[in-house]
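Subject: design request, 269 residues
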């Protein structure tokens, strides 16, 4: 069985140590391209003080679903000490300060109670309560949630966004938020042995698998943005992908299906 890997990465931020080659930042989410500045207004960078060195590092993405709440992946949370984390909303170039950013501490972390660190079992979702509410602006806004148990048809085009690696070998990370259209692979296809087999649950969404476009390390926790009913909705949270090259044919990026967890989200937020 193919090994699953989380799509977490450590990327140094402005005034931080940069662990990737800065000359490699002119590539493109894998197969993507630069997003327009502050178009995906709910996209946040989840950052952690990893080494008690005064620096915060981008580890995952996330989405603002309320002024005080961010949804991300459970596997992004390696410690429940909320003081280690911060959220940056209104971010575009992760290595530059433009004045649109809102840097907000985290007050409380709630990981889904059934998460057991086994990606194939699902429940890869967590909520962060912010220490102070995010302020709505031209660069920061909330994302709509899907309808309960809403499922999208095979081939439906959504967008994946994030600051994850833009190539696996050698590793290269972008400075600017990346975006790419990505097509949904319905469960009946993704759960076949040629694809993800029994690792793909109905509480997950598969998207991609064309060998070109995929999420990668650093995109974990970020959104699968889908325009339904004329509004952008958060249909997925980046969960896992294949070991090795991220953009493998028939091994799409797998997202936690948000519509399966609305009752839990509402009970927490």
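Subject: RE: design request

Done. Sequence follows.
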């Amino acid at each position: 069985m193919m090994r699953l890997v989380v799509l977490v990465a450590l990327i140094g931020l402005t005034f931080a140590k940069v662990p990737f080659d800065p000359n490699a930042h002119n590539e493109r989410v894998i197969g993507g391209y630069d997003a327009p500045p502050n178009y995906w207004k709910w996209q946040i960078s989840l950052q952690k003080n990893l080494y008690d060195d005064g620096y915060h590092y981008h580890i995952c993405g996330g989405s603002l679903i309320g002024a005080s709440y961010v949804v991300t992946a459970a596997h992004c949370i390696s410690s429940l000490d909320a003081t280690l984390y911060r959220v940056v909303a209104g971010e575009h170039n992760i290595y530059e300060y433009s004045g649109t950013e809102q840097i907000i501490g985290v007050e409380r972390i709630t990981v889904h109670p059934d998460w057991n660190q086994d990606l194939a079992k699902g429940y890869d979702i967590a909520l962060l309560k912010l220490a102070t509410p995010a302020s709505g602006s031209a660069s920061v806004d909330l994302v709509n949630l899907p309808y309960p148990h809403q499922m999208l048809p095979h081939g439906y085009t959504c967008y994946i966004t994030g600051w994850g690696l833009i190539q696996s070998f050698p590793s290269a990370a972008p400075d600017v938020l990346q975006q790419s259209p990505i097509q949904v692979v319905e469960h009946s296809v993704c759960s076949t042995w040629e694809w993800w087999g029994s690792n793909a649950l109905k509480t997950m969404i598969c998207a991609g698998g064309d060998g070109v476009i995929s999420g990668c390390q650093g995109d974990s926790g970020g959104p699968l943005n889908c325009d339904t009913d004329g509004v952008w909705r958060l249909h997925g949270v980046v969960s896992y992908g294949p070991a090795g090259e991220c953009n493998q044919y028939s091994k799409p990026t797998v997202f936690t299906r948000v519509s399966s967890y609305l009752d839990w989200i509402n009970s927490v937020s």
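Confidence is low (pLDDT under 50) at residues 12-28.
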